[in-house]
Amino acid sequence: MFILYLLIFLFGTIIGSFLNVVIYRLPRNESIVYPSSHCTKCKNELKPYDLVPIFSYIILKGRCRYCGNKISVKYPLVEIIAGLMYLVLFIYFGFSIELLFYLFLLSLLIVIAFIDIEHKIIPNKIILTGLIVGAIFRVLMLNYGVWDYVIGFVLGGGVLLLISLLSGGGMGGGDIKLMAMIGLFIGWKLTLLTLFIAALLGAVGGIILIALKIKTRKDYIPFGPYISAACIISILYGYNLLNLYIKLITG
């Protein structure tokens, strides 16, 4: 079993390495296929031994082999997060169609979170890709019900759209589209829970960032990473949390 878990983790880090390419190139309107991986500073093409997830960063001591410039710690961080979360989802869902579905969603959320942190945008291409895949999956899984997910789509985007209208644009359009996409993936019950958890995480995260003077009250704080984290929490523990809440209010 340990070997299987290790393989799943390593597979996740490989996917994470590809996600790094998407995170870097997509906001710059560059192809994620061509040219091959290269140093963003000196443009030297990277060899296979420069691209081993996590280990290459450690061996190279966080610097480019060719020009010596620092490599952002973001790269191994994305690979570690992807590897760990792929393993967690595998442990939770096992070998199943659901696993593939949620691994795909996880990969999108990682890309969205890191792009939003760095560029303060959520690319429409990622959202559109998620909507297409989510819709196809729900059609294929029609026997398991579809209205929960249609309502999730409308509710996820609708709640944030309403907040945006009432607050005079306090909620970004990317966040609205992201929640609509998530609603299509996880259904309306977990969508509502995701909104609640995201608001809670956002409030706590904002307070910490302001307390540490990383941000000020006037600074824009990306909400996409909090939505992404809340979505994963809901997928893994959502129904347990909902059942606990029902028990608390019913005594």
TrEMBL record:
The chain crosses the membrane at residues 6-26, 75-93, 99-117, 126-144, 150-169, 190-214, 226-246. It is a multi-pass membrane protein. Residues 10-93 form the Prepilin peptidase A24 N-terminal domain. Keywords: Cell inner membrane, Cell membrane, Hydrolase, Membrane, Methyltransferase, Multifunctional enzyme, Protease, Transferase, Transmembrane, Transmembrane helix. GO terms for biological process: methylation; signal peptide processing. Its EC number is 2.1.1.-, 3.4.23.43. The keyword Cytoplasm does not apply. Belongs to the peptidase A24 family. This is Prepilin leader peptidase/N-methyltransferase. It comes from Thermoanaerobacterium thermosaccharolyticum. The lineage of its organism: Bacteria, Bacillati, Bacillota, Clostridia, Thermoanaerobacterales.
